[in-house]
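Whether sequence alone determines local backbone shape is best considered at the level of individual chains. The sequence in question and its structure tokens are set out directly beneath this paragraph.

===
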Amino acid sequence: MDSNIFTSYVLNNGVPVDNRLAVAPLTLFSSNADGSINEAEAKFLDTRAENIGLYILGATLVQEDGLTFPCQPRAISEADLPSLAERARIVKSHGAKAILQIHHGGIKASAALSGTMAVGPSAADGVHEMTEQEIEALVAAFARATEYAIRSGHDGVEIHGANGFVLQQFFSAHTNRRTDQYGGSVANRMRFALAVTDAVCKVREKLNRTDFIIGYRLSPEEPEEDGISMTETLALVEALCQRPLQYLHVSQKNFSQAARRGTGAGQSRLALIHKKIADRMALVGVGGLVTGEDLDNALKSGLCEFTAVGKSIMMNPRLGTLLLKDKNARVESALDLGRADHYAIPDPLWAMCRQAQDWLPPVKS
């Protein structure tokens, strides 16, 4: 077991993590309609958390009008605490750190699911432009979700500022056309994300939980000409480094992806971000990492402290245990649709896998 993957790491708040392997936040579409946990979801978690360092539980809703996915987990009210606690218990029973990703869809939210109009930084078809009071209320909702995460036994939260959801919508000039303190300049456009981050950190302080982990996930660039550039992302990274966060998680399709435009165009995005962080917190790298060799080489590159898997952990239950025994172990790189029971993927997500969509694992022909 000569592998960088299974070396421990101590976060900047003194919390040790057993290894450098993280489960990327996966949207399972498989809780009950009210967001509560069921047997199928529990089984998926139980078969994935072995020998994982950070297990990030995906897209947990903080406010009803942000509902984006069918059967999305929630951290909105006291009624959500039992299911939150059960998810944390399952993950932690295997020694992994249970990290709750807190989420609001913004303009991507589904009115059909929530029964309310989608909200966002600027008005559009079917989208209500948030007032400053509504922005403040959403900041408070992220804070409240953090308190529920602590009370339900989670080891941390990950603020979801990636993948075109509400925090990214405010940061991007492509979706934010406001003229008040939340729009216009880069500093104004990052104001909402930083307000959420500060509010989350204050909850940890209020509850005297210095051991509670706080991370932030971001998408480093957008393809649109007026979308987020690396110059803007590095400004946000610098601002986040001035907060007491433990890690930054970069969402991208390919680990080695190069910057499109702005600062460092043509250079590795992760290299640019890692240099900006300058050891102030950990960096989680992701993007097409499937095999033990992929993960080991990513860590050897020196561009991140943790590597995250999404598709690979779907295709390989107990991936952590498999790689712990042998980092060169053969792992599956495509789903065998004739072995549904082997994967323990809940039925709604399995039905999507059968359609061979490119954001899900490939299937064997």
